[in-house]
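Hi C.,

You asked whether I'd gotten around to modeling the 206-residue construct. I have! Everything is below, sequence then structure, no commentary in between.
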Amino acid sequence: MSETTGNFEKPKHASSNATPRKVSDEIYPDRGEASKHTTPQSDCAIDFSRNPIGVIGLGLMGSHIAQRLGNQNLAVIGFNRSPKILDGIEVASDFPSFAKRCTLFWIMVSDGEATEAMIDALIDLDITDKIIINAATIAPDHSEILAEKVRQAGGYYLEVPVLGSVPQVKTGTLQLLIGGDRKIIDRCQPCLLYTSDAADDLLCVD
């Protein structure tokens, strides 16, 4: 089973011998073949057409993730520590305003240090009831520390390392290895499913 720290369920590394299971098989066990390429949503899912997703880190992967989500008619605002122009996506220049407007933050920066710096900046501005998805590749122990920081600040944290690259982002066929609270995963379904082939490759690792 997954290792658990408080409310934080931590995924084992993708290289383990654990057998991945599809989150969609848990939440939507009765999906028929006809609905295979639709995007089912939990009843408690956030309406991201009205509640913006903030993508932090507009490098190669982050920029394409932002555009992928935007192309699915979700509200997306990007933020990059250095100035950036991204076709089809609003890129904020003022971080406090950006943080206030967004409901969920998808962090796709280079390493653990950069991830923690962005999380600390968000905490300083208030993340009460907001969700942070950490998609950067960082050490498991560091991720647990960040999860606790976010929890203490009144927010919610998901660890979501990705398997795949730009071609998979463009086609929505990334594999996502998710660690976190089951209820928060449900709330994020529209955002997560559009990056993972309508849930077919959305994975959780036991």
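If it helps when you're writing up: The helical segments are 23-27, 60-71, 95-101, 112-124, 140-152, 166-171, 182-187, 189-193.

Thanks,
B.
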